Amino acid sequence: SQELEQSPQSLIVQEGKNLTINCTSSKTLYGLYWYKQKYGEGLIFLMMLQKGGEEKSHEKITAKLDEKKQQSSLHITASQPSHAGIYLCGAPFDTGTASKLTFGTGTRLQVTL
Amino acid sequence: NAGVMQNPRHLVRRRGQEARLRCSPMKGHSHVYWYRQLPEEGLKFMVYLQKENIIDESGMPKERFSAEFPKEGPSILRIQQVVRGDSAAYFCASSPGRGLANYGYTFGSGTRLTVV
């Protein structure tokens, strides 16, 4: 079973609309990372959340961490075509080296004109 | 300040050949991580290395795969006798120290391996 479940798996929104992507963990979260992957390219770091209740924003993207619910959400306001891609959440479940991430299966976002 | 550099970007190998994937970390980063993204699957951790040391190889397949990060030069992920199932995107990330809480990762653009 997947340790990090993302929902929805894919999403098509019209330009200008808001959207939310969720990442739910089956284990205690000690931090949560959001990345964006353009099709066929590498991963771009978006945000790192470390504390329960933490909320961060960058441009039109806001991410929150709810430790009690073992969940994080990524919200995009007024979506643009440049937001299209695959959004991945990742969490460090390994408390040994604390240096490897387990990733969710991703959410594919398409933004239509 | 160049980011994490991976080469080649695309690599085609016939079954049975060897594949060598290179990763040069960001300047000042001495910790390197390799991940594999199989088609229709998520990104999976393979190995974590510091200079001349393998710290965690819990995600490496038991056979045919090896990784190194020598004192000088890039980190190398080596796949011997490749099979079709090795076709995937291989990503490298680097950080200046241990512990994601302190440093986070910077990823390279990946090497897409196709085995024919």
Plain-language structure description:
The complex is a heterodimer of chains A (113) and B (116). Chain A is an all-beta fold. Chain A is 0% helix and 53% strand. Chain A contains no helices and eleven strands. In chain A, strand 4 and strand 5 (43-49) form a beta hairpin. The model of chain A has no long low-confidence stretch (mean pLDDT 90). Chain B has one helix at residues 100-103, and strands at 5-7, 10-13, 19-24, 31-37, 43-50, 53-56, 65-68, 75-79, 88-95, 106-107, 111-115. In chain B, the strands form two sheets. In chain B, strands 2, 4, 5, 6, 9, 10 and 11 form a seven-stranded mixed beta sheet that branches. At the A-B interface, strand 5 and strand 10 of A face strand 5, strand 9 and strand 10 of B.
Mean pLDDT score of chain A, rounded? 90
Name the helicity range of chain A: under 10%
β-sheet strand percentage of chain B: over 45%
Strand content of chain A: over 45%
- Please, how many helices of chain A? 0
Q: What is the helix tally of chain B? A: 1
Number of strands of chain B: 11
Largest interface: A-B, 28 and 26 residues
Cα distance spanning the termini of chain A: 36 Å
Annotation keywords:
heterodimer; A: 113 residues; mainly beta; six-stranded mixed beta sheet; five-stranded antiparallel beta sheet; B: 116 residues; seven-stranded mixed beta sheet; four-stranded antiparallel beta sheet; 3% helix; globular
